[in-house]
Amino acid sequence: MPTDPDVNSPTGGAGVSAISAIAYGFMGSQALFAALELGIFDALADEPSDFDALAAKLSAPVGPLRVLLSTCQALKLLTREGARYANSPAAARFLVRASRNYVGDDYQRQSSPIIYPNMPTVRALLRGGPVGQLDYTTTYTSPEKTEEFIRGQHAGSLGPAIMLARTYDFEGCSRLLDLGGGSGAFAIETVKRYPGMSAVVLDLPAVIAVTERVIAEAGLADKITCVGGDLRSAHWPPGADAILLSYIVSCYSPGTLHDLMARTFAYLPTGGRLLLHDFALHADRGGPHNAALFLFGQLSGAAETTAYTVDELAAAMRAAGYVDVASRPFLPDITFLVTGHKP
């Protein structure tokens, strides 16, 4: 472990402390994954618990569990009063399975088993080493793995999907084309909010097999149809007057972005709308912090990942012919929403 003789000084301490927080960040993420896997947050959902009762409830070895609980306290995922542990407010809201805001499946089904183990491949990519094909098609190696990935994606997308349906005015739109729509979360929440709308989700065939089940579970199979294909080359079903590209364009090179913008413009009718929701950076490329981290992580599944600024995304839309192009922060510190319409 690195030490610094000036660790407590105003100039030396802050620097090494910040660098250490980055270097040891993986320990915090693994502690979170372990706590979710063990069921700690669910075990504390109803009431606080002392250590012995919690250990018995979880059937966990006493020594390692005590270490994990202390780590979760330090990460402010748990609190402790006297001998009793409790979920922090954030953990109670987002990490308890019964909560409608639960996001743990995103971490357990995507981040922990798929993205995290692929990080060495990203480092190899940056060294210029051979990494083979590196795009999301390599994630879908079996129906079971695809199901895990898309179910995790669904858990992470529900909150943003609800937020988009609540904050973007789809009045006047009749049909949404969700390109690369994954689990269909955005289509589901949009048609629930706007009963007069229908939607079509287009994604790779392996993904669509899962999407159809998710949509059926939501009771919306009569409102949302699914089409399998690569959005860059597949035929887009006609009839939509709004197109959504969510977490998609940042996966592609500027050339592909240009082609997609031109194709969406040619597809849409007069007055049709395009919505880009994605990780993007400020003009100085120094943040947002979490957007930059997500873009780095995305390299694990998409070697063409490009760190676009929000201004570059807006400029690409204008270059394709869209007017009234507007952008705004969407998920705090993570994503932006860029919108425009065809004149």
Describe this structure in words.
It is a single chain. By secondary structure, the protein is α/β, with parallel strands linked by helices. The chain folds into 2 domains: 12-96, Winged helix-like DNA-binding domain superfamily/Winged helix DNA-binding domain (Arc Repressor Mutant, subunit A, Orthogonal Bundle), CATH 1.10.10; 106-341, Rossmann fold, CATH 3.40.50. Helix content is 46%, strand content 15%. It is built from 14 helices and 10 strands. The chain has a 7-stranded mixed sheet, sandwiched between helices. A 3-stranded antiparallel sheet has the order 1-3-2. Helix 12 links the parallel strand 7 (242-246) and strand 8 (273-279). Helix 2 (25-38) crosses helix 7, helix 7 (104-115) packs across helix 9 and helix 9 (143-167) packs across helix 11. It is globular, with a radius of gyration of 22 Å. The model is unreliable at 1-12 (pLDDT under 50).
Descriptive terms for the model:
alpha/beta; 2 domains; 7-stranded mixed β-sheet; 14 helices; Rossmann fold; globular; Arc Repressor Mutant, subunit A; 3-stranded antiparallel β-sheet; 343 residues; 10 strands
- The percentage of residues in β strands lies in 15-25%
Secondary-structure element series: HHHEHHEEHHHHEHEHEEHEHHEE
The secondary-structure class comes to: alpha/beta
Give the number of domains.
2
Percentage of helical residues? 40-55%
Adjacency order of strands in the biggest sheet: 6-5-4-7-8-10-9
Poorly predicted ranges: 1-12
Assign the CATH superfamily of the largest domain.
Vaccinia Virus protein VP39
**What is the CATH C-level name of the largest domain?**
Alpha Beta
If helices are DSSP runs of H or I spanning 4 or more residues, what is the number of helices?
A: 14
Most strands sheet: 7 strands, mixed
Radius of gyration from the alpha-carbon trace, in angstroms: 22 Å
